[in-house]
Amino acid sequence: MRPYFALAALLMLAGSCPPKIEGFVAIDRAVYEWRQMSSQGVIVAYRERPNDPEASLEFWAEVTEKELTLNRGYHLESKTEIPQGRSLLFAAPEERAYLLILLVDADWIRTLEAGGPREGVRREAAKLVELMGQKR
């Protein structure tokens, strides 16, 4: 498993039915609610867990950003506030990218992760942010 899919702080799961994302097919879920892959090699995975012990969006975003930048050598390209959450786009080694869309409320932490070729992840980012907007 590639390291950009391993965020230990967000591993607890609950049930979910996967959406159909145009251009993607379902693949092995591993530790995620669902995973899908595009023909361009972008892998998208969703998971959720109870926000217990409760922590803020700011906390979870900061933990994730520090883990990826300080410990894994990623570079934060952009940070965008979205309703109930934040979208973080990272440049990863070897012309790859990692997108984390994080939604946090008092009850749940929901994440959508996308990793793969840098241009493919960038191209899919807006569609994935819109998809997460439906999870509120």
Helix residue percentage:
10-25%
Structural Rg? 14 Å
Average pLDDT, all residues? 83
**What is the tally of helical segments?**
2
N- to C-terminal distance: 29 Å
Fourth-tier CATH superfamily name: Mog1/PsbP, alpha/beta/alpha sandwich
User: What does the main sheet amount to?
Assistant: 7 strands, antiparallel
* Proportion of beta-strand residues: 35-45%
Enumerate the strands of the largest sheet in spatial order, edge to edge or round the barrel.
Answer: 1-2-3-7-6-5-4
Query: Do you know the CATH topology?
Result: Protein Transport Mog1p, Chain A
Question: What form results from the Cα inertia axes?
Answer: globular
The CATH architecture comes to 3-Layer(aba) Sandwich
How many structural domains are formed by the residues? Answer: 1
Poorly predicted spans: 1-15
N-to-C order of helices and strands: EEEHEEEEH
CATH class: Alpha Beta
Could you give the count of β-strands?
7
